[in-house]
Amino acid sequence: MSVSVLRGAARSIFGSRGALRALEKTTGIRLRHVATQAESAQDRWSRRPRKKVLLSNLPFKLDIAELEQLLKSVAELRSVEILKDWAGNSAGSAVAEFATMHDCHIAMQTLSGYRLHRKPIAIELDENAKEKNKMVNECAVKIFNVHFAYKWQDVKDLAREMGAEATSGQIVRADGEQRTRSYAVLIYKTPEDAKSAVGIIDKQMDRNRRLRCVLAMDKDPPLEEGEEDFYDRASLLPDDF
């Protein structure tokens, strides 16, 4: 019930606006407080600003239509977006906005630990998930033309020896379709550290190869001499590379 309806009902009982003020003064009851108390719990949830949840540990090849259908089956969904990594691929997480906070809590209680393609979903309130994901991407660099036999630890050790130690990363292999080049990714604590790493690593020589290093969100550099050998042979590498 809205405040205006309550005020109208009160005027019909107690008379003029002045009489209403007198009533509030003598009784200590404010009509706005009465109206708030009369609202349903769901209405109160609806006024709260944070109605978003972060879903993580999602299958990387999950179709957004399947995720949307799942979320709609448990609560009133407004929108859902799968977050992307520096390469434009799924980051294994998504942000969903629900109609009310009540819907958020229903989704959290229902889907926490739910196995989607055998992976248990983690879900939590998070209004700033997209911004955090963007920050991670801004802290990443890509290194091209590394030796085809290198594993992630080899690249991490190489960066440390150069004075640009990273916190984490991975090898991204060419697949001949979406990615025609293979490269290594390093993640740093801050965007400033990532920019510094680019200055340190870019155009350094390693095993007779000139490394090219750019911020992950920047345009990829041109192919280096001999780099074709790297992605041609990448298809022959074992799965745990």
TrEMBL record:
Q: Check the record and name the PROSITE patterns matching this protein.
A: RRM
RRM domain location is 51-128
Q: Which Pfam families match?
A: RRM_1
Keyword RNA-binding annotated? yes
Q: What SUPFAM superfamilies does this protein map onto?
A: RNA-binding domain, RBD
- Tell me the InterPro entries matching this sequence: Nucleotide-bd_a/b_plait_sf, RBD_domain_sf, RRM_dom, RRT5_SRSF_SR
Protein name according to UniProt: RRM domain-containing protein
* Organism of provenance: Rhodosorus marinus
Q: What is the lineage of its organism?
A: Eukaryota, Rhodophyta, Stylonematophyceae, Stylonematales, Stylonemataceae
